[in-house]
Amino acid sequence: MISFEHFTIEDGTPIYSQIVRHIKQGIIAGVIHNREEMPSRRLLSALLGVNPNTIQKAYRLLEEEGIIESQAGAGSWVTVNEQQIGAIRSQLLEGDVGVLAKSMKQMEISKVEAVRLLEDIWDRI
Amino acid sequence: MISFEHFTIEDGTPIYSQIVRHIKQGIIAGVIHNREEMPSRRLLSALLGVNPNTIQKAYRLLEEEGIIESQAGAGSWVTVNEQQIGAIRSQLLEGDVGVLAKSMKQMEISKVEAVRLLEDIWDRI
Amino acid sequence: MISFEHFTIEDGTPIYSQIVRHIKQGIIAGVIHNREEMPSRRLLSALLGVNPNTIQKAYRLLEEEGIIESQAGAGSWVTVNEQQIGAIRSQLLEGDVGVLAKSMKQMEISKVEAVRLLEDIWDRI
Amino acid sequence: MISFEHFTIEDGTPIYSQIVRHIKQGIIAGVIHNREEMPSRRLLSALLGVNPNTIQKAYRLLEEEGIIESQAGAGSWVTVNEQQIGAIRSQLLEGDVGVLAKSMKQMEISKVEAVRLLEDIWDRI
DNA sequence: GTGGTCTAGACCACG
DNA sequence: GTGGTCTAGACCACT
Fold this sequence. Notes:
Four copies of one chain form a homotetramer. The first copy, chain A, is mainly alpha-helical.
């Protein structure tokens, strides 16, 4: 069963997005595996203290991306192959890093300075 | 007068946030200076094709952060000292980089891999 | 639910300020408590015969002062601890009384005379 | 000539109101006397670093209240009798104190507490 | 001319 | 249902 132990809700981004992202990051990190079972909507709703509709939306989005499958009465489970994992990895990483790079360029930060910053902050977090 | 020549509205984030960020980035890049005059609400509103109230909101936020000052009848202008510029710089950079680093760590990306990614994507943008 | 029964709009000060002040005074008077629910924008807007945006502005200011919290889809509610209540109390009282005292001193009114005035007018209002 | 030495512009209230109030308080304090000469609009504008129109508005208001008189080419001067001084005194004092008393009552502050507060703050200002 | 407030109402995201 | 954003435009106070 997939764990939400180290998951805490932050604000700024919608809760359902945070859940989706948590699943994706878990898959990339190798913590969540193919065929692993998702908690039931009802259970996760109670666990996180979040409206069932919010959980429902997260699960629906994951389904639409082909990351999980659900069957009435049987629950939901992860369905990813190696190719998909690579795609998710690129999607997350290149998105995030691209936003950062664009922003820094607009602030006239140089590439070496950017790298130095990343290395600095990496160790402090 | 501060220029909005290279500014284009994107969606995803509120327009007023984009304006606030544009000003902050301009200050950090050294393109916008202390005492420089902001365009009037009406002018900028016409320039960007955006409702005056949206501009008003951006200006109010900047004012609340002490980055600009406004006076009814007189206009608005930038009011930042070196210390503030440093603070804004940290706020933007450490925020962005921190989010990225945290996200990457959760995906079990190593530091060298992260740096390599940043360098790769930097050149492609 | 917080009551606005004894609240009537006056002019001279912005409506949103009056709402903010009403909430603060209610908290100090012990009529409004922590965790109590604020009326929704739409409801209060209809109740006071005021535009929803005006209510929105009042709520935003209260939120920025940490007096209420809002969550899209869920509503708004009061979030104050004892320390904050003390701070609000000081803010309102010392502000008002300070302005008065300063003004009176500039008119060369003596302290005893000031107290006598306050007592006189107190009973007549 | 009436002095504006101890006068500094604050924000929150219009500048012209502050000037009007400064004159009234000076009269009540006995610092400004009947027949005393007002600085020329041009001079005061330069002295306070304020737009001439703002000074003009203050003078106009004072004229309308019969507190000063102006004559083209000759300047402006104070014209108040004892009765007027009494009226101005009441207007300022009862207004200010009334606002304070009403506000405090709404916060469930008792009369003795109010007096104690005034005395406390009086000494600290 | 400037900024500040307010109305009237639409649309969206969220729970 | 909720709050958040945005448009369109009026009116006012201030300089």
